[in-house]
Q: What sequence folds into this?
């Protein structure tokens, strides 16, 4: 039962951290449009420049996908290691390893 609550607390903490990270610009009121300098429009009609966003060739496009793949792979590996660490701590707690450590605690004073 206690294990369930620990997992629930950890998952809610992760969700809260993601929301804070993603919503920080919204909460601070900063947007890319507000950071641009104000330009006065002349009476003549200004034609906007054509800007294409994104990679220009296949090499850049492949590099973006490789980067994103490695990023998600590393996140998944870190989550796996965290799960294994939690399982190990649960196993030690089931063996009452931490209680034995407290029972035989010795103060080393000089």
A:
């Amino acid at each position: 039962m206690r294990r369930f609550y620990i997992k629930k607390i950890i998952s809610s903490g992760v969700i809260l951290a993601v929301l804070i990270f993603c919503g920080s610009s919204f909460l601070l009121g900063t947007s890319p449009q507000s950071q641009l300098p104000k330009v006065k429009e002349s009476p003549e009609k200004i034609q906007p420049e054509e800007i294409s966003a994104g990679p220009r060739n296949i090499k850049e496009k492949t590099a973006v996908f490789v980067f994103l793949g490695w990023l998600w792979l590393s996140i998944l590996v870190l989550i796996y290691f965290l799960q294994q660490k939690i399982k190990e701590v649960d196993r030690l707690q089931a063996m009452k390893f931490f209680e034995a450590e407290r029972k035989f605690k010795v103060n080393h004073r000089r």
